[in-house]
Amino acid sequence: MTIHRITPSHRGVSTPKLLVSRDCGPAGCEVDWLTSRRFDAEDDIEAFTTFSLEQGWGDGLPLIPPTDARVRTFLSANDRYPDELIARMPDSSECTVEKIVINAVMAGAPAASLELIIAAIAAISEPDFELYGVNATTASVYPGFIVNGPVRDALDIPYGYGCAGGVATRANAIGRAIRLILRNVAGQVAGVSSQTTFGSPGRTAGLLMGEWEEKSPWAPLAERRAGIAGNAVTAFSTMGTMNILDTTSTGAMAFLEMIGKSVSYAGANCYSPAMEFSEMTIGINPICADLVAREVPRLEDVQEIIWKHARVSADWLQGLHRGQLEDQGRVRGDGYVYATPEPKDLVLFVCGGLGGLHALGLHSFGSALAQTKSIATAVPAAGAVAAA
Length: 388
Hints:
alpha+beta; four-stranded mixed beta sheet; 17% strand; globular
């Protein structure tokens, strides 16, 4: 057995409480806690990618071989122990730090992204996110993630132009690492454990973006949702991205009406009798957010205006469809079916480029509810104190 030196650091969270590592001293110690099965494979990306597909680990894109040295180097840059259990997946498999790191290495994610990945996995493992349904459904849904705080810039997570995809950044590897974890630890395999009819590019690349807090007229998403000021991630379920363009409207009310009407279509999960409730995530670009806030300063009012237009007429639906919705009490007194139970169930955030008037529609799976978690951040070892 090969023994390697793992030098500890110290981790704190985005609250004043600091944590002290449970290692054997500030200089580190010789340990070997990696328990994953070892395989003999070539340390060559092309050869390993082929090998990974044969073993059922790969996603079809090139993978970096997760050698002992690479995995240990990734761990040594963080104050986490490989046997630490982060979450239990829907199939009861244990998602440990070791499993997360192995998949992060394969995806090419930077070592500094570990705490973000851990927070993301913890978020989608919350019961109300209903990861089992998201993984197994016939829909094309997958988890998306919105990041708040300074970690956006530290990890080069896009929140301006092209934030939903297409920006050349190593942050793309972070989203892919999460996807590999869902494949290799949670066991999501199309046609086997997942009955997704069409799937989505997001089931390979993932969707990870930031909120452009500095250009938002409202408080950051994580602060509004969970009272977290600083580094945090919000996980939500999405079917993919919908661009909403409005080059005609000149006022906030008209633009918000366009957003509400655009995200409303009969085949969306939020209008299905199979889903008794839903959320919907909507990104508003900074130009539009500024225009809207001048007329409608309170975000709660913005949500309500969009919500009033995010509806379909029950008379427009087929009789059987309408009857099932009526039985669920979802046809309101005005004869409409609304996308979400209440305006607060519209998850709004600010992101995107400054080139025009656009919004981003991110339709939900339905019963998966967004979850927000703080992201642990590093603190100097000398300043660490025992947690109370």
